[in-house]
User: Which sequence fits this backbone?
């Protein structure tokens, strides 16, 4: 799995011109699932996401988690995180998981983050989405399992 995590002041995702997910202060998370990824690893990554200290404290230091600040999380699936452009000019996506497995892991991460009392909004799995985000910092962290 690959997670691209961005600290945001606000973020919104829309499908066909309709807002489907919107948050204020918190984290915007893109999730890519690769071949061979396991559901059990989703629990570990969700826990890391909730508790990772990347939110600013009163001195503007990254000492707080999204949970500590009462922040929100916007989660969007993105198989293109497994794009490989090593050869040629067109990326290959053969390392991305099949949609059924990817959706199961994506939904498990969302469920586990919510179990921590965090408000979670989402995009629509597999849909073409437009995203507006106001980055904070900017802070971008990549996690790979």
Assistant:
């Amino acid at each position: 799995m690959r997670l691209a995590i961005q600290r945001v002041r606000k973020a919104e995702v829309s499908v066909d011109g309709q807002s489907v997910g919107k948050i204020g202060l918190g984290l915007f998370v893109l999730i890519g699932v690769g071949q061979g990824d396991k559901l059990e690893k989703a629990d570990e990554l969700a826990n890391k996401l909730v508790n990772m200290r990347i939110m600013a404290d009163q001195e503007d230091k990254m000492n707080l988690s999204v949970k500590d600040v009462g922040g929100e999380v916007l989660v969007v699936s993105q198989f293109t995180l497994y794009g490989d452009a090593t050869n040629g000019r067109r990326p290959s996506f053969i390392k991305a998981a099949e949609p059924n497995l990817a959706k199961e892991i994506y939904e498990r991460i969302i469920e586990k983050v919510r179990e921590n009392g965090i408000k979670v909004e989402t995009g629509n799995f597999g849909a073409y989405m437009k995203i507006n985000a106001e980055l904070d910092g900017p802070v971008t962290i990549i996690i790979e399992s």
The chain has one domain: 2-144. The first strand starts at residue 2 and ends at 15.
